[in-house]
């Protein structure tokens, strides 16, 4: 997914990404959470990031290798009264969707897709 995160208050934020299987989170073009790999549901978090009010570019990549499927994006900081919560829809602005280009893959090939 790609889009923007709106922060209303200046301060330190921490981001959490739980997934089954791998996932990566980028904020303003920099990787902030690395939860990559083949694994059951697990959560990783960023270091604290100082953010000013406004929109910040947000991108999340995920891959699924079989079994369960989970992706949870959470954060904590001044906008959440420093409580860890799921990032609410009102704080997200999605970029206009592009139609994906599909290719023929053989069985068992794992691919990443960013919409």
Number of domains: 1
The unreliable regions are: none
The biggest sheet amounts to: 5 strands, antiparallel
Instruction: Please trace the helix and strand order, writing H or E for each element.
Output: EEEEEEEEEE
Average per-residue pLDDT, rounded, comes to: 85
Approximately what portion of the residues adopt beta-strand conformation?
Answer: over 45%
CA(first)-CA(last) distance = 5 Å
Task: Write down the overall geometry.
Answer: globular
Structural class: mainly beta
| C-alpha Rg (nearest Å) | 15 Å
At the first level of CATH, the class is Alpha Beta
What's the CATH topology label?
A: Toxin - Anthrax Protective Antigen, domain 1
Query: Can you count the beta strands?
Result: 10
Total of DSSP H or I helical runs spanning 4+ residues: 0
The spatial strand order of the largest sheet comes to 4-3-7-1-10
Oligomeric form: single chain
| CATH architecture label name | Alpha-Beta Complex
CATH-assigned homologous superfamily: Toxin - Anthrax Protective Antigen,domain 1
* Range of helix content: under 10%
Protein name: PA14 domain-containing protein
Domain PA14: 1-91
What does the model show?
By secondary structure, the protein is mainly β. It has one domain: Alpha-Beta Complex (Toxin - Anthrax Protective Antigen, domain 1), CATH 3.90.182.10. It has a 5-stranded antiparallel beta sheet with strand order 4-3-7-1-10, with no helix packed on it. Strands 2, 5, 6, 8 and 9 form a 5-stranded antiparallel beta sheet that branches. The N and C termini lie close together (5 Å).
């Amino acid at each position: 997914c790609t889009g923007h995160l709106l922060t209303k208050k200046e301060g330190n934020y921490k981001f959490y990404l739980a997934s089954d299987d791998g996932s990566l989170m980028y904020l303003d073009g920099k990787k902030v959470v690395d939860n990559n790999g083949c694994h059951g549901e697990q959560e990783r978090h960023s270091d604290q990031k100082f953010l000013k009010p406004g929109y910040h570019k947000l991108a999340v990549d995920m891959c699924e290798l079989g079994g369960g499927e989970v992706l949870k994006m959470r954060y904590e900081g001044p906008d959440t009264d420093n409580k860890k919560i799921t990032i609410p829809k009102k704080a997200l602005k999605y970029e206009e969707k592009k139609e994906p280009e599909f290719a023929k893959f053989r069985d068992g090939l794992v691919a990443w897709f960013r919409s």
